[in-house]
Specification:
homotetramer, 97 residues, alpha+beta, 3 helices, 4 strands
Chain lengths: 97, 97, 97, 97
């Protein structure tokens, strides 16, 4: 089984530059051991549904202590079948171009 | 503390009519006891972050057994302060019109 | 034909209270004459695809002059068939509960 | 000025494999001449707001003739300042790790 989520999470009470806060989440994602890919609008993470949801929970917990307002957007794509879809989905589209 | 999420979750392998699957999630949201509001594009739910994430997990678990592909979109807005924001946020905008 | 979008658009360089900016967009949506519904996480608008996209463009134009950073999230659901789905989609789920 | 959008658009009435339809959009994005990056959950595109919205419109128009139901998710991040942020945003986070 494979769930890919794309997560963007950032405070909205810290002015317009939020990359230090985004870096906090990225460190947690990296430490999770799950496959991930950072892009300009979020980070894609692949795992079992509960695993990726747990990462989301930890990213929130890393911001909550010093942020008064936090915005989060998440998309998820679950597909019954083998993992390895971070690379696979992109390849599948590109070969049809 | 108050987190409002808006959740949309549906299978993409069941053709274009998915309201029976959306109803499954709504039942779970209702049974959670959290404040919620169904709208044409998703359901807003208010609670503590872990509480709303737990509801998301249960909605996914209700679809996973008979759906081969599931899509989910989620937005969250966390604000330090009192709950009651499902009504409060809408009122705050409308009084500024 | 019917496209429903849900739009959320707000500056992220103005601190955590952004309802005056959200009210600007709501006024534009109201003046468009399209069917709409404000909810705690965005505003649903129904129309032809080009019509709703044009409203998004005008909402952005209303923030751009005095906002240095703007975030926007949008979901759209297009369905071949008659309009009137702002009420119809919610009713279709509720009758299956 | 720089707007980055991330776009995902696909039919939900064609079963679970939709990469041929995603490829249609990617071809339009490519032909637009704007900077873009495909990722597992969408495509990031950078340009002026009206330019990127115009691309969205054309992607929809490429699916509408033979799709009865279409779902679209979009995030946008506008920032007053120079373009080149597809690479810049990712670098800015990575150097803070």
């Amino acid at each position: 089984m494979s769930t890919i989520i794309e997560l963007a999470i950032f405070p909205t009470d810290k002015g317009e530059s939020v990359s230090p806060f985004v870096a906090r989440s990225l460190r947690i994602i990296k430490d999770s051991g799950l496959d991930y890919e950072l892009n300009p609008m979020g980070t894609c993470i692949e795992g079992e549904f509960k695993q990726v949801l747990d990462v989301v929970d930890r990213c929130f917990a890393a911001l909550e202590p010093d942020c008064d307002r936090i915005y989060l957007t998440l998309k998820a794509d679950y597909r019954k079948g083998p993992p390895g879809r971070l690379k696979g989905k992109v390849a599948s589209v590109q070969e049809k171009l």
